[in-house]
Write a structure and sequence with these properties.
This protein has about 375 residues and is an alpha/beta fold. Helices cover about 45% and strands about 15% of the residues. It has helices at about 10-25, 50-55, 70-95, 105-115, 135-145, 155-160, 175-185, 190-195, 220-230, 250-260, 275-280, 290-295, 330-340, 340-345, 360-375, and strands at about 5-10, 30-35, 60, 95-100, 120-125, 150, 170, 205-210, 235-240, 265-270, 285-290, 305-310, 320-325. The strands form 2 sheets. A 7-stranded parallel beta sheet has the order 3-2-1-4-5-6-7, with helices on both faces. Strands 10-9-8-11-12-13 form a 6-stranded parallel beta sheet. Helix 3 runs parallel beside helix 4, helix 4 (about 105-115) packs parallel to helix 5 (about 135-145) and helix 9 (about 220-230) packs parallel to helix 10 (about 250-260).
Length: about 375
């Protein structure tokens, strides 16, 4: 009897992380399908469904949850739509297990629907801490609703067990993002410059700003502080990637779009995709902002990282990751350090606590074993 596995994805970053797991599941002759929703189906966030369809790793079942309003009330409306549609899809498809990653509200809705439909859940990356984002609540709730638990480092495995997970069903497998960073094909620097639009004689910094959803701070004001501080690093080019579909994310992206139009040194991409993003970061002078990729993946590329603000506060991090508040004076002081040649050299000697061997293979095999044991 063929095993049927549903893999949920609601964002471009999530898809990039889950892609190698699905690839390995397919090599085991497993029936896999993507449950695609969230920003993948939104023009405002790049409509990245086409990337999934172009990969053609597995069939897609889509659920449009109307991400047209990312106010708190709008997010609640999207969550209601998600619960209804996900529940119907799971009832029709009847998978043996749902694989969900992370801590966003879309994934939370998928896990909740699976619980109601009596579909076991394998959850990736419980036990983590992000004090500046409402995702903290969703992540812990998803842990308590799941049967299998895959964590990115040992400290997080212990926390998942404290939250009630069976120790025999909780594994520290490392971070999929690190595996991606180490195995994504390395593109020539000239090709990277061409798609970023950066001349041969210029260097660049990659930046991202997601709203701090546990904060009262205006996300547009914060991204303006960061962008204006980065301007002082001329002649470096500044490459911003888009914010996600949190409350305030669209406003951040609208501001960045207009900001980028005013100078050839400014660049804005709603979505670079995994391969382009990792290669852009590989050749960058530094990665700046509050994306989790700066904490998890980028240290394995031996590139300096400046984590800004509170969104990622509480995460385990490598010694190559600096932190500062989103304030002009603190940003300027940190810029001086991570652009220092001695500091950049020392980054190459730092390890990454999220790095392990064959992360995707471990996840795929344990999911399959669980399903087979239930048959």
């Amino acid at each position: 009897m063929s095993q049927k596995i549903c893999v949920f994805t609601g964002t471009r970053a999530e898809y990039g992380l889950l892609r190698p797991v699905v690839s390995k599941l397919r090599t085991c002759d497993t029936d896999v399908f993507w449950l695609v929703s969230g920003s993948h189906l939104s023009d405002s966030y790049g409509h990245t469904l086409h990337e999934i369809e172009a990969d053609a790793l597995a069939p897609c079942v889509c659920a449009d949850i109307a991400l047209t309003d990312n106010s708190p009330a709008g997010v609640c409306d999207s969550m209601g739509r998600a619960m209804s549609q996900f529940g119907n899809i799971l009832a029709n498809q009847q998978p043996d297990i749902l694989l969900a990653l992370g801590d966003r509200y879309e994934a939370f809705c998928a896990v909740t629907a699976a619980v109601v439909q009596h579909v076991p859940v394998a959850h990736l990356y419980g036990g983590e801490t992000t004090l500046g984002a409402i995702d903290e609540y969703f992540r812990n709730a998803m842990t308590t609703m799941s049967q299998l638990h895959f964590t990115s480092c040992e400290a997080y495995r212990h926390k998942v067990i404290q939250l009630g997970a069976e120790p025999s069903k909780a594994w520290n497998v490392g971070a999929l993002g690190v595996e991606n960073a180490l195995h994504t094909p390395v593109l020539p620097e000239g090709k990277v410059r061409a798609y970023l639009g950066i001349p041969e004689d210029a260097n660049w910094i990659i930046a991202t700003w997601h709203p701090e959803t546990m904060s009262e701070n205006d996300p547009v004001n914060q991204v303006a502080i960061l962008a204006n501080a980065l301007e002082t690093l001329a002649p470096l080019h500044i490459v911003f990637t888009g914010a996600n579909a949190d409350t305030g994310g669209k406003a951040v992206n609208d501001w960045l779009l207009h900001w980028a139009e005013k100078s050839p040194r400014r660049h804005f991409f709603l979505s670079l995709g995994v391969e382009r993003y990792l290669n852009a970061a590989r050749y960058a002078k530094a990665v700046v902002g509050n994306s989790s990729s700066g904490i998890i993946e980028i240290p394995s590329l031996q590139v300096p990282v400046l984590d800004v603000g509170d969104r990622q506060q509480g995460r385990v991090r490598a010694a190559s990751v600096l932190h500062c508040a989103c304030r002009r004076d603190e940003l300027s002081a940190c810029f001086q350090k991570f652009l220092d040649l001695h500091w950049a050299d020392s980054v190459r000697l730092c390890g990454n606590p999220y790095e392990q061997e064959d992360t995707s293979g471990q996840i795929a095999q344990r999911c399959l074993r669980y399903v087979l044991d239930q048959i």
